[in-house]
Amino acid sequence: VRLPWYNRFDLNVTRTWKGWGGDWEATINILNLYGYPNPLYITYSAGSFKQFSVGFLPTMGLSFKF
Q1: Is it the case that residue 66 has pLDDT exceeding 70?
Q2: Sequence-separated contacts (24+) of 24-28 with Cβ below 8 Å
Q3: 1 pLDDT band (50/70/90 cuts)?
Q4: Among 11, 27, 33, 19, which Cα is nearest to 63's?
Q5: What is residue 32's DSSP assignment?
């Protein structure tokens, strides 16, 4: 048994700057921008398959180096 086709479009925006005694970096990530139902994992139980998917997933981050 093979898993179904997998595809996604990710978007990542990063901005860096200096301030308050160090280097800052802010990021915004959007995983699977168009929400294609890619399988995260598939289980088989009681004669049927069950697919668990991750759709549109936004994340944000902020880092500081001194």
Answers
A1: yes
A2: 24/62, 24/63, 24/64, 25/61, 25/62, 25/63, 25/64, 25/65, 26/60, 26/61, 26/62, 27/59, 27/60, 27/61, 27/62, 27/63, 28/58, 28/59, 28/60
A3: low
A4: 27
A5: S
Q: What is the mean pLDDT of the chain?
A: 89
Write down the pTM of the prediction.
Answer: 0.67
pLDDT of residue 22: 93
Give yes or no for a contact between 19 and 42, defined as CB atoms under 8 angstroms apart.
no
User: What's 47-60 look like in SS3?
Assistant: CEEEEEEECCEEEE
* Start-to-end CA span in the chain (Å): 51
